[in-house]
C-alpha cells in the first residue's frame, strides 16, 4: 500500500504542477484579452479530481482492496500513458493550455501534437478519463473508478459543450 500511496501522491503533485502552469498561462491569456467561460462548473471539477485522489487512497485502505498484478500492472501502464498524453497536450497548446476555459479572441485552433488527430477531438479529456479509471484500478479501487467515471462523464459533457461554445464565439470553429 505504501507504493500506491506514493503513486497517488505523485499524481497529486502532477496536478499541482498543472495548476502552476495553468496560472502562468492564465496570465498570458488574460494579457491578450482572453475571456473566461464556464466558471460555474470549475469548482465541481476541482472537487471531483480531489475526490478521485482521496477516494483511491481511502478505498484501497479502508475497503481492504488487494493489489492484483493482472489488473494493477496494466492499469499502472494506462496511468503512465495518460500522463504522457496529458503533457503532450499541454506542450502542444503551449501558453493556451489551461484548467479553465480561457479563449483569446482571434487565435486559430491548435492543430499540432495530439490535436492533429481528427478522430480524437479532445485528447486531454481522453487522458483524464483514462486516468480516472486506471488510477483507482491500480489497487482494485473499483468503486472509486466507477463513481469518478460517471461523475466525470457528466462533467465532461458540460465542459466540452462550454469549451466548444467558447471557441465558436471567439471566431474559431471546433
TrEMBL record:
Superkingdom of this protein's organism: Bacteria
Predominant subcellular localization, coarse grouping: membrane
Subcellular location: Membrane
Gene3D superfamilies: 1.20.120.1630
Pfam families in alphabetical order: ICMT (PF04140)
Membrane topology: Multi-pass membrane protein
InterPro entries: ICMT_MeTrfase
Coiled-coil portions: none
Keywords from the UniProt entry: Membrane, Transmembrane, Transmembrane helix
UniProt protein name: Isoprenylcysteine carboxylmethyltransferase family protein
